[in-house]
Amino acid sequence: MIKDNKIWVGNDDKGENIFLLPNMANRHGLVAGATGTGKTVTLKVLAESFSDMGVPVFMADVKGDVAGMIAPGEDSENMRERIARFGLAEAGFTYQGYPVNMWDIFGETGIPLRTTVSEVGPMLLARILDLNELQTDVLNVIFRIADDNNLLLTDTKDLKAMFNYVGEHSAELAAEYGKIQSNTLGAMTRAVVALEMAGGEDFFAEPALNINDWLTVGAGGKGMINILDSSSLINNGRLYATFLLWLLSELFEMLPEVGDLDKPKLVFFFDEAHLLFNDAPKVLLDKIEQVVKLIRSKGVGIYFCTQNPRDIPDGVLAQLNNKIEHALRAYTPAEQKAVKAAAQSFRENPEFDTYEAIMALGTGEAIASFLDESGTPGIAQKAYILPPQSRMGAVTQGEREQAVKGSLLYSKYAQYVDNDSAYEFFLRMGMSQAEAQAAEQQRPEPTLPGMQQGYGSYQQNYGAGQQGYGAGGEQYAGGMPQQQADPYAGLSKEQIKELKKQERARKRAVNSVGNSVAGTIGREVGKTFGSTFGKFGKTFGGNVGASIGRGLFSTLFKR
Fold it and tell me: Running DSSP on this structure, what letter comes out for residue 484?
């Protein structure tokens, strides 16, 4: 709840209010505790408070009960006792639901949440695929080849097409990019197939998520709460962790520097945070630590939720300044050592022993420490956490469907789109003229007025007898001159500029990759004729043949 423009988290054992200051909320935080100690309720109380302040929120719903925030809480004897205990009625406590967008990577229980292979990048993708060091280096090289040839890597089909292309042209690519073994590419392809079977085929697709769609408010100016259904996703820990890390990277790259604000622009709650760091290579851990350190200056607060603080690397843990520690249980010497470490991370309160207090906490109780106005960590306080205003349990299937389809973002992301990318480009390279024309006729209808989608931004056919261009811009079909229609008619300057940019990129890709194919064909022909003159003639003839092949390709397909 909001009280005196501060986030009211709970009361201490003397009945005094305990607050989290909004202008310190972007200094990140930690919510920890054993199973069943009340972590989820604490997350919901914090998320409701941020939403009340107009701050958008992201939450991962691992157990399915976070989605209940869409509905008002239900009255009960226990709730009435808690309301009276905290004096919530006088503070304006009411049962209420919150504006929620429900997401699901698999598109089954929420709005489909997707991104592209290119946006995830080779480092995070290598972790999803569980690649070794050599394979990770090769993946980086393949991304470089795609970038150099302006080939879009959207989905897993594109990735496998790039693997296949690199394998077939490894000899030509070796001089510039190094030799790539076919068995390495084979292992990587199998990893991609395994990822597809685990749901990666749904995740890597378009339309990709636009992070700006999460920086919105709902009815009454409340911050939108974006809930990712992770009940199935959590079974694939690598995909879950990599998705969350991708979100952080996207926010870090997209948002401008804003410094310290009166309240955050966005707050993330990462449940089961240990999955982010399990088996992560050092280079990835360094990246996470860097993003966590720097993203606060962009107005983003990150709150990790886990069972034990030791699940978080020390470099990241040191950045989490607002702490809520629920009960920890210690039955072994190692567990007792972990509790002592958690207790030592708090400023000592002379009124109680923090170690003993953590061990004796009940459900809904915690040891809390928040930053004060000067940014100094407060002393440890025993806190009794407030109850949430929204429903504590899960939602029904009907409520979920209504929430998903009633969202303004459902129409934007619900329909899968298979845009023209690397896979389609390589597919056309292997087609005959008739096959390419047949494929062209099956492409979707134009999405912009006055335009026709083809190999680039608008349709052009190169087959003999199809069409030619005469002086003065006249188009000839069947020997009769016809005035060529303006392909940019009815478009804005920005649309025209973007379409021309896409066409230039497509030309570069055709020239670069096409020349490679033509060079390969020409080289083999040259080798055949040159073999008559021995080894030197074979080598020389191959090089000449490659040059002639590229020249013919350039002449035949010059635009």
Answer: P
- pLDDT number for residue 234: 78
Fold of 2-114+209-394: Rossmann fold (3.40.50)
Rounded to the nearest 10 degrees, how much is the dihedral formed by the CA atoms of 77, 80, 85, 89? 180
Question: What is the average pLDDT across 345-372?
Answer: 95
User: Rounded to whole angstroms, how far apart are CA atoms 98 and 95?
Assistant: 10
Rounded Cα gap, residues 187 and 191, in angstroms: 6
Q: For residue 514, which of 443, 476, 462 has the smallest C-alpha distance?
A: 462
Q: How far apart are CA 178 and CA 409, in angstroms?
A: 44
Structure tokens at 430: 């292997």
Q: What share of the chain is helix, strand, coil (3-state, %, to 5)?
A: 50, 15, 35
Distances (CA, A) of 484 to 225, 469, 477, 558: 51, 9, 11, 20
Say how many C-beta atoms besides its own lie within 10 A of residue 233's C-beta: 23
Contact 46/7 with Cβ under 8 angstroms? yes
Token pair, residue 40, equals: 């989820």
How far is the C-alpha of 68 from the C-alpha of 52, rounded, in Å? 17
Using pLDDT thresholds of 50, 70 and 90, give the confidence band for residue 245: confident
CB 395 within 8 A of CB 69: no
Q: Averaged over 283-311, what is the pLDDT?
A: 89
Find how far residue 546's CA is from the centre of its chain.
Answer: 42
d(CA 514, CA 508): 9
**DSSP state for residue 390 in the 8-state scheme:** B
**Residue 44: both structure tokens together:** 């919901």
Q: State whether residue 169 is helix, strand or coil.
A: coil
Pairing of strands 6-11, 2-3: antiparallel
Tell me how far apart the alpha carbons of residues 377 and 354 are, in angstroms, rounded to a whole number: 15
Rounded Cα–Cα distance for residues 545 and 529 (Å): 9
For residue range 453-465, list pLDDT tens digits in order.
333 333 333 333 3
Whether residue 130 has pLDDT greater than 70: yes
Domain ranges of the chain: 2-114+209-394, 128-203, 499-559
Distance CA 126, CA 137 (A): 9
Name the token pair of 53: 């302040």
Using the predicted structure, report yes or no on whether residue 19 has a pLDDT greater than 50. Answer: yes
Q: Which two tokens stand for residue 468?
A: 């030619």
Helix ranges restricted to H, 149-273: 156-168, 170-177, 182-195, 201-203, 237-254
Residue 488, Ramachandran bin (φ over 0: left; ψ between -120 and 50: alpha; else beta): alpha
* pLDDT of residue 193 exceeding 50: yes
Q: In what order do the strands lie in the sheet with 468-469?
A: 468-469, 474-477, 480-483
Structure tokens at 57: 């929120």
